[in-house]
Specification:
By secondary structure, this protein is an alpha+beta fold. It has two helices and five strands. The protein is about 30% helix and about 35% strand. A hairpin with a 5-residue loop joins strand 4 (about 85-95) and strand 5. Helix 1 (about 1-10) crosses helix 2 (about 20-45).
Length: about 120
């Protein structure tokens, strides 16, 4: 999986504008790596974590399909977000890389888990 992420990084680097600052370049490279890891997790029907998410590390995300990743927004479909207290299901989910904002759309269900 790390090899795939590294290959994705190498492929994406020429696509980045040359006038970006070093910090922006590193952030973009990290997004490519994280996006690649998420794509592999979806292919293997495994759970993953959204990067830099305030949801925490105990929250598991699964998705049925990768829609797109334009560097600004990651889009997934058939998404389930599970924590020990809550389950969120959505037809689609948009994750904004710059802000960490998560926007579920379509049919969205939220269920509290009673213990």
């Amino acid at each position: 999986m790390k090899r795939l992420a590294f290959v994705l990084l190498l492929v994406a680097l020429p696509l980045l504008p040359q006038d970006q600052s070093e910090v922006d370049l590193m952030r973009a490279a990290q997004q490519v790596l994280q996006g690649g890891e998420i794509k592999v997790a979806i292919a293997y029907k495994a759970s993953f974590h959204l990067p830099d998410s305030a949801l925490g590390t105990d929250v598991k995300v699964t998705a049925e399909r990768w829609i797109s990743n334009d560097g600004y927004e990651l889009k997934l479909s058939g998404v389930v977000i599970k924590s020990d207290k809550l389950i969120v299901q959505a037809d689609q989910l948009s994750y904004r890389w710059a802000t960490g904002e998560i926007e579920p759309s379509g049919n969205v269900r939220v269920k509290a888990i009673q213990k």
